[in-house]
From TrEMBL:
The record marks R18 as: Transition state stabilizer. It comes from the Bacteria. It is an enzyme of class 4 (lyase). Pathway: Metabolic intermediate biosynthesis; chorismate biosynthesis; chorismate from D-erythrose 4-phosphate and phosphoenolpyruvate: step 3/7. This is 3-dehydroquinate dehydratase. It catalyses: 3-dehydroquinate = 3-dehydroshikimate + H2O. Transmembrane segments: none annotated. Substrate binds at N72, D85, I99, S100.
Length: 145
């Protein structure tokens, strides 16, 4: 049984301190603990990077070593065609995750390149969205294409 990859993009290492009125007060370490608890025996490979290059490399790793991906690409959601191209190579399920409801925010946050590949999108559930996403990848849910 391959683990679930939970990948986080730029500035998410600042969770709990960064704009708590938007992102809440839960830290990335607390998010990681939630994901590990939700995954149970399946296991989680959990990463955060501020580098587009490294995030793409982690997607490549997940293609070979993982059973699915939960990805919060942060600002790269709206800017990175290279990340979209990497995600298009993933054969397993991909869940795009955003802590805030990106559709209630400024228009620049309304067009996601990642959504073009994602099987599902979770936005606006706060840090709890990570737990929901991990559980969705464990259960044999029909994720729409």
């Amino acid at each position: 049984m391959k683990p679930i990859y939970v990948l986080n993009g730029p500035n998410l290492n600042r969770l709990g301190k960064r704009e708590p009125h938007i992102y809440g007060t839960t830290t990335l370490a607390e998010v990681e603990a939630m994901c590990r608890a939700a995954a149970g025996e399946r296991g989680v490979i959990f990463h955060q990077t501020n580098s587009e290059e490294k995030l793409i490399g982690l997607v490549h790793e997940a293609i070979d070593e993982g059973s699915g991906i939960v990805i919060n690409p942060a600002a790269l959601t709206f800017t990175s065609l290279a990340l979209l191209d990497a995600l298009k190579m993933v054969e397993g399920p991909v869940i795009e995750l955003h802590i805030s409801n990106i559709h209630k925010r400024e228009p620049i946050y309304h067009r996601s390149y990642v959504s073009m590949r994602a099987n599902a999108v979770i936005a606006g559930l706060g840090a709890y969205g990570y737990e929901v996403a991990v559980k969705a990848l464990i259960r044999p849910l029909p994720l729409a294409d």
